Amino acid sequence: MIFTTPQFVLFAVLFFAGYSVLRGRARKVWLLAASYFFYGSWNAKFLLLIIGSSLLDYYIGAAIYATPSGSAAGAKRRRRLIMVSLVGNLGVLAIFKYFNFFASSVVGLLSALGLSVSPVVLDVLLPVGISFYTFQTLTYSIDIYRGTLAPTRSMLDFCLYVAFFPQLVAGPIERAHHLLPQMSVLERRINWSGMGLIALGAFKKAVIADHMAALVATAYANPADAWAGALWIATYAFAAQIYCDFSGYSDIAVGLGRLLGIEVVQNFRSPYSADGPSDFWRRWHISLSSWLRDYLYIPLGGNRGSRLFTWRNLMLTMLLGGLWHGAAWNFVLWGAFHGVLLIVLRPVESFELAKDAPLALQTSLRFARRIVFFHVTCIGWALFRAQTFSDCFAICKKLLGFEGFDFARWGRAIVLSGEGKYLAFMMLVVAALVLFQNITRSDSKALVAKLWSAPSAVRFVVVVVLLVATMLLSLEKPPPFIYFQF
Q1: Is 206 found in the same domain as 174?
Q2: Contact 318, 338 (CB under 8 A)
């Protein structure tokens, strides 16, 4: 069930009709039942996984909290309990998402060494959203183990925290200390600014991202035979597509939460206004990047050591972050790409002009850094969007000009082809998106906050226009959100 389909609209109408008349525990049960129905609409069998994950960490968290850490025996028991949570959650994730990837990689390696081995393949579907809710349940047990969180006594509240349908299948990845207390009381006043975020998110997804998808798919279907100009256009289009697709989902998730009186964390802050890799990861998929920082990079040692030690931690974090996105080598390469950027560009990010430098020079330098890094980010997106490992090299070879640029062909394709106006429109969208973020650095939350300070008539008109445009311009069969596959 996709947010931008009539099926979800019907689901939302029926859900909110029941939610508005219920109170107390009945309202919680209704929300949990709706969340399970929403998730089970893809494949009801996978409800067993999310329920099992919820029960595992609920009881593990309670057992860890009840075990004193002052004695050696207590500390040992706590370590065993947290290992059960880690192995249980990550084991299920490994089986469903990574088993076939690692098995085929081993077979390929052995074949390269001259050894013939029959591949072992598990014929299983990837459960929607498993990477998101697995990380979400893990934070609960880990935070209790660290002593920074007390467990909830309500299994109903915990199951709601794990299965809350607005952000269940594609995030943001919530922390227990933020979302769980909000599940204890669902009597909050509705924040109608949520409608603004829903309308904006739906517009991003259906009007921009979905229409960009066809152009991107055409060029990336066979990059070895595509010409450099087409790949650059498709890469810019994909930068707009993945941002509008994923941030659009997050906007809808935050908006639905607000309609329920629940604040979901913001996942994006104008990422294409970043002036370096560290700044980018403070703005892109914030809930994942902060998770990787707090539960992987810092436990590895962070920057508390030598320069080589810090570089190792950065690279491991980004490699695993890339692998989290998908069981394919192009995602690992994308993670390595950002790991190298974080290492190599650290001195550049820390460089600042003297405080007495002319303001115009400082502004120009910041703007230039943002534009340059946007293009660097796009090269990374090319690796992300590639379908195979070999495609990554073919794409980069053409994007970086190793086969030369046929500017005459580029010009003829844009000016003379039947799709010229379409391509020009796409490029205007990308340029407007990047320039707007660089000039304003405004995220969706800030934009809607400004809208909600306007008169009610203005708010109503803007929301209606966005929703009507979404309905009129949406595709008959909209593709799923990109991050559903992760």
Answers
A1: no
A2: yes
